[in-house]
Amino acid sequence: MPHFEFVKSSYSSGNGECVEVARNIPRTVAVRDSKRPGGPHVTVTPAAWDAFTADLRRQP
Question: Ranges for the DUF397 domain (predicted)?
Fold first, then answer.
């Protein structure tokens, strides 16, 4: 199991409703709920993550 180094978004407001992302593993982006740091996480390819975040930036 790789060691993920999760970081919170700079947009996090500190209210505990945050998503944390780890990009320190080659060919993998891991995402987890900051309220459950020991809980499950989702892994996707960097291309999938980039497409997802690009789509979020296009939203009104």
Answer: 6-57
